[in-house]
Amino acid sequence: MFKKRLTADINEKIMPPRHPTNGDEERYSNKIANFSKALPHNSLGEVDTTSYAALINALTTGSSDDFEAITLGGVTKLSDPQACFAYAMEGADSHVEVTRIPPPYRGNEQGSEMAENYWMALARDVAFADYDTDPTIAAAVADLGTFPAYTGPQPVTSDNIFRGNTPGDLIGPYVSQFFTLDVPYGSQVNRQQMNTTLAGDDHMFDYTEWLNIQNGALATTSNVTDPQPRYLRNLRDLGQWVHVDWPYEAGLNSALILNGMKATADPNSPYLTYTKQGGLVTFGIVDVLDLVGRTSAAVLKAAWFQKWLVHRRVRPEEYAGNVHNQLIGAASYPLPARLLSSPALTEVFAKFGTYLLPMAYAEGCPAHPSFPAGHPSLSGGAATVLKAFYDESFVIPSPMVASSDGLSLVPYTGATLTIGNELNKMAANVGRGRDAAGVHWRSDGISALRLGEAIAIAVLTDLKANYWESFAGWNLTKFDGTSIVI
Predict the structure, then answer these.
(1) Closest CA relative to residue 351, chosen from 133, 136, 134
(2) Within 10 A of 468 (CB to CB), how many other CB atoms are there?
(3) In 3-state terms, what secondary structure has residue 442?
(4) Which of 9, 161, 309, 427 has its CA 20 to 30 A from that of 239?
(5) Is the pTM of this model over 0.85?
């Protein structure tokens, strides 16, 4: 890879940095802290270590033959592990950005994220509009509000529970306007109603089904679609949106909405001062749409590098198997004590008969490691591009919010909603939807947003020199609240 980049006509050539990990892969010989879905497992859901070693060998050599030599446990294929070796000619290579170290298996941060996932599963059918009065939400607030190392918004309240950590996440409705407003799509106007799944459509809480799916078998149940289209009004809807979406659909829709509302351009756009020219191929919607899509491939390459070659973090559904087997006395693991005493576990067992994590998707998580999350890496990159091209302070006209049943939209009245804040929220909603479905952790999504942001900034930095127009650079407020000019 480095030799290829040395011969490329680019303005930046970077050797791979060091990528620290949490040490869990070396710490546990049974690999309980690492992703292993689709490989063979024993009756406790612990991976066959010979097959896991074959996976590590293939990731070390990069050989297609070595990947093909891995023994799988069923028919499910690993999700594109060779993509972790791919690189891009624009922006930073996939290996350049360094993520935070994921929370360790036995720590309270991961324990708090597991508890949050249980609570999100229990609250999937509670309308966001009803959070102030719902008893499940009240119980989740009480539990997570006293959970050590919980990294969600603090102090935990019914207004901020399950929300993301970006600037803008705590302002206005839970769901971003970019998931609510109509999308002008050429000659069509698409209402953002979707066919979600029915209330109570949860899966993989049966132990035999859970174990078979860990081994790579196909699910024996299926998601049941609600025939009534609805606006996003609860966690189940949000989780289903990010179950069936296309890679950068959230960013594409957001760009089309911004264009339709004639949002003001970034203050540094040269076309704000031109009196006889308008932007299109550069600094216009063509440029915006190109870059929203153009960054996505680079962003996913970076995410796949971290997933397969660095962290290989366990998925929540796998971790929940350890929780279940410990609580029924079948095994003993170094799980955080505070998690094992969470009332969420008592409620899950009372409702489903096991301590497994009830999944929103019949098949559970995809067959690639958890950290960082792919979906919010894409939405993070797209939001970054859009914040670069548009004035973040532009106020969204006529904001709306879904009714409790999702059948209609009603006018939103409250704090002013700006492009910048709602793009941040859009990006975070994508990650939180995957968490609500049970396939990711909170820290997967937060780190993914920042990774997507960094890759998008690198792409914009490379491409800035290609513009003929003279301009000072794009203004941008990052997810951590700091302002930069690219």
Answers:
(1) 136
(2) 6
(3) helix
(4) 309
(5) yes
**pLDDT in 10s for each residue of the chain, 486 residues:** 455 445 444 444 455 678 999 999 999 999 999 999 999 999 999 999 999 999 999 999 999 999 999 999 999 999 999 999 998 778 878 888 889 999 999 999 999 999 999 999 999 999 999 999 999 999 999 999 999 999 999 999 999 999 999 999 999 999 999 999 999 999 999 999 999 999 999 999 999 999 999 999 999 999 999 999 999 999 999 999 999 999 999 999 999 999 999 999 999 999 999 999 999 999 999 999 999 999 999 999 999 999 999 999 999 999 999 999 999 999 999 999 999 999 999 999 999 999 999 999 999 999 999 999 999 999 999 999 999 999 999 999 999 999 999 999 999 999 999 999 999 999 999 999 999 999 999 999 999 999 999 999 999 998 988 899 999 999 999 999 999 999
88 falls within a domain: yes
Asked if residue 5 is part of any domain, the answer here is no
> Would you state the structure tokens that stand for residue 431, as one six-digit string?
């990650």
- Lookup result for tokens 């106007």: 189
375 catalytic? Reply is: yes
Q: Report the alpha-carbon distance of residue 429 to residue 376 in Å, rounded.
A: 8
Catalytic residue among 95, 311, 375, 440: 375
Q: Which of 203, 243, 311, 368 is catalytic?
A: 368
Is 95 designated active site?
Answer: no
Task: Show the domain range for 327.
Answer: 16-485
**Distance separating alpha carbons of residues 234 and 125, to the nearest angstrom:** 6
